[in-house]
Predict the 3D structure of the following.
Amino acid sequence: MLNNIIEAVDLHYKYPDNTHAIKGLSIRVEKGKKIGIVGPNGAGKTTLFLHLNGVYKPFSGKIFFEGKEIKYNKREMIRLRSKVGIVFQDSNVQLFSSSVFQEISFGPMNLGLSEDEVKARVEKVIDQLDIRNLRDRPTHFLSGGEKKKVSIAAILSMEPEVIILDEPLANLDPKSAKDIMGILEGLNEDGKTIIISTHDVNSIYSWADYIYIINDGKILKEGKPQEIFEDTKVLKSANLQKPWIVDVFEQIIKSNPEIKEQYPLPRSKKELFEMLGKLKIKV
Amino acid sequence: MFIDKYAYINNLKEVHPIEKTCLSLLSLIACLVFNSLGLYIFVIISMAFLILWSAKIPAKVFVKIILIPLPFLIISVLTIMLNITKDPEFIEYGFRVYSWFFGFTKHGIFKGVYVFFRSLSAVFSIYFLSFTTPIVDIVWILKKAKLPSVFIELLTIVYRFIFVLLEAAFYIKTAQKCRLGYSNIKRSYISLSQLVVNLFKKAYQNHKMLYISLISRGYTGELKVLEENYRFSIKNIVFICIYTLILLTIVII
């Protein structure tokens, strides 16, 4: 319990037009873990995220940060939002400044830090994400992948504990997507807790420590990736596909059931190939 | 959108924005205040030289941009110069169509030429600033000039979202074209109206999301960002002083 950095208990939320977007949703996020939130469009992922940093106030239910229930006063909100950063799906709506440098400085300036401190943070983040070549370029000349990196940098400069990314891989080319996943991996190694939402079951299956499947404002299933993606019934009701690694593995054990006892479900392409190697299947 | 692109990549980008603004405004004010053809021509030549030579803007781009105000200028100058009258006394050079006289007077031509060069020199002075100074720097100057922050924040966001909406408009238009949305005049009007409506909706959605994303980063009603540091260069300041002196000398002579 003490290790949970964020916890949401039985959230309910209705939009002003009476859409019941979240219907009794609970999640627990352990510190330093990689969490995947998977679900179709309109399942309530973004709405959930905006609860976790206090932008939306739940209709009923509670949210705990570092074990304490959050209060919706001004000072507490600024603290919470500096600890829980959200990278939005559409970089265009997040980047308000035409200068990459100023964009990244916006968050830390709001924390009331000194100018030297802000500058140090901005330069540090620029080096960390390897985007020095973008520093003096105007935002509107950046590509989709570059904008995404700047959006992430703009959040990192606030030095949050939890980084939430809403569909970080949407509309990115494979190279940019790989870069972004690499950045997230690095952040996680630095001890940051990372939550991402996605439709990309293949990436999330190999990447996440723990997965929630959300549909229609409710949790359909939660658990380790292997448990989640073996459950054909749940996947079908959330209109999701199985990761190809799981498909291949299941195809293999269909004709060789004894393998299931010897090998666990492989998590990545590498693990799958190692298993095939040990089984003396040439790859 | 040409100018905007070159403002970020020209050779004078690193020069202190105050120096560039000073030079541009000084020559602009001189052209508006003083009545001297020599001054106008000097400003036009020197600004063209600064834009093409110092800032290294490609001549092709520069000419294209100059061509934008030229038609307006020529039409307005012609209306100043041309007299249409029934009384031949008002015309010194001209021709006659039935009882009407079309033509020019010496004084009118003189006035027209002055207006033409005065406007062109003012345009060149402003072009120097817009070719060499990105909006971010201009915003910085406005801040230093203690303009109200509401105005400055509005400028920042409007400028940024011109590009976002332009991109959205471009995508919508392409999508409409792919389905023959502009195949005839009637379809074009309908498609265009839908494009505008959609753009408004998009602008509204973007505004909501922008607000949420700003709040998420601790926005409390003021867009606080870190300013870049610029360095004054003595060489440039001396140049600006000499330039101003030359302008004044021309006026006095």
